[in-house]
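Final report, closing paragraph on structural work. Over the funding period we assembled a curated collection of sequence-structure pairs, and we close with a single example.
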Amino acid sequence: MIRYVKVKKKDLDRLIEFKLQTILPYLSNPNDKLRVISYVNNYMKDNYIKCKYIVNNFKVIGAILIDNEELDMLYIKAKYRNKGIGSKVLKRFRGDIKRIILRKRNSLGLKFYQKNGYILKQEHDDIIELERV
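Its predicted structure, as stored:
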């Protein structure tokens, strides 16, 4: 059974790690990576309160952060992926998420969100914006 638990400030390091794992694989420029790490550290310190852990059988298996109707982060640990958990999470929070932004290089993410009812709204440089149908 999937549950959602509020993140506490003491868990900030794990949350920052989760967020970075959703961004860094899609960046190629080392300068961008350093800038993103700094940004994520500051952003998560200010916004961790909006985040919820995804818990399965009493284990934290991921996290979700929704900010102003935008899915800012959906992270599921690798060994829990492709088991329908991400789709269940999106379904649970569907009414709260109107917009998703991701990098064009994230083709798996794009397919996943489209499979779950989000359509392409705009493309800018290396960014894709999706919206709920």
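The chain has four helices and seven strands. The first helix runs from residue 12 to 23. We thank the funder for supporting this effort.
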